[in-house]
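pls design
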């Protein structure tokens, strides 16, 4: 199940510590590259003990508006989805790029969406240059294949491939955060597989559906000394045993194909419902069963979530006014129809 080009995996206990340690791996890689892989100087060693340069370098991670990467200090600095996550916690002066805001249906707005993605990519390059000039070079770029917590925001495969090339051009690491998208719910084990590239990233982090946490990485992101990437549990061996069996079931029961089939039925059902309730629903979107739809306002969205729950359906909110659908991999087409009938009843109460 390892991502293309990834030769190593470092297990962790959860999504936040997976991303936090992946950030550390990128910083260590970047500094080793800068010093020509020589031994750190005495000044490096002494200054880091009092949180000063050069031992604690002024490096940065570029992230995107709407992103969610976790609740630890570094991850929180790269998180920009809800104010309540960040309030009262000191942070870092790191660059934040705009994430494309696509218009739907995609086939009707291909030109506008291409322009929007080009604008965001241009801003990424400008920020990398600006932060280098500020003396805080970008050591790595972190992005989700689908911004989940931030509102199920999608971008095209070309956008991500271009971003990968920008990272390479400027000597930045490229970290794809698959904590929410990894594990099969998009119809592939990794959402980045939909980009169709052999070299998707330098680091891919995971957790949630994959039971434990951790990150896959290319050889050069292996820490050069022991204990540089380390914590109490370093993941959970018992969860790895369970995960091995889960992966066997996914293969044996062809669950990724099942997800693709049921995801198609779910998205088509959401298209029908947004045509039926045009004043209430819009922007139906998704990959596999990793789907979402926008509601006219947050109060209506929250009311729909409550009424669906009362009818036995658990749905989640994300972004300002989106509903996200996150069924299990065993969710089949007949489950889709059961759900759509209940969802239609709930919507009818809000007409």
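designed seq:
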């Amino acid at each position: 199940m390892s991502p293309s080009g990834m030769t190593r995996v470092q297990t962790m206990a959860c999504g936040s510590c997976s991303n936090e340690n992946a950030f550390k791996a990128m910083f260590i890689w970047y500094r080793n590259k800068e010093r020509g892989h020589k031994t750190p100087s005495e000044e490096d060693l002494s200054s880091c003990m009092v949180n000063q340069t050069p031992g604690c370098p002024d490096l940065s991670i570029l992230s995107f508006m709407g992103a969610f990467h976790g609740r630890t200090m570094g991850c929180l600095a790269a998180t920009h989805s809800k104010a309540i996550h960040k309030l009262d916690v000191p942070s870092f002066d790191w660059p934040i790029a705009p994430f494309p805001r696509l218009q739907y249906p995609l086939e009707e707005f291909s030109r506008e969406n291409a322009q929007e993605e080009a604008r965001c990519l241009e801003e990424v390059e400008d920020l990398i240059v600006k932060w280098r000039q500020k003396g805080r070079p970008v050591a790595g770029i972190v992005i989700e294949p689908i911004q989940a917590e931030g509102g199920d925001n999608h971008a095209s495969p070309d956008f991500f491939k271009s971003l990968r090339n920008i990272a390479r051009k400027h000597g930045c690491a490229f970290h794809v955060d698959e904590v929410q998208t990894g594990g099969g719910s998009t119809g592939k084990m990794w959402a980045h597989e939909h980009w169709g590239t052999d070299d998707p990233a330098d680091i891919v982090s995971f957790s949630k559906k994959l039971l434990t946490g951790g990150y896959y990485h290319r050889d050069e992101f292996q820490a050069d000394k022991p204990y540089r990437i380390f914590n109490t549990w370093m993941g959970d061996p018992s969860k790895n045993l369970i995960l091995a069996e889960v992966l066997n079931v996914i293969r044996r029961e062809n669950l990724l194909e099942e997800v693709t089939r049921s995801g198609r039925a779910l998205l088509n059902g959401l298209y029908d419902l947004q045509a039926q309730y045009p004043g209430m629903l819009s922007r139906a979107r998704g990959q596999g069963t990793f789907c979402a739809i926008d509601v006219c306002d947050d109060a209506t969205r929250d009311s729909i979530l409550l009424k669906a729950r009362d009818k036995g359906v658990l749905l989640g909110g994300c972004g300002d006014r989106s509903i996200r659908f996150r069924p299990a991999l065993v969710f089949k087409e007949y489950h889709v129809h059961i759900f759509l009938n209940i969802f239609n009843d709930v919507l009818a109460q809000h007409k």
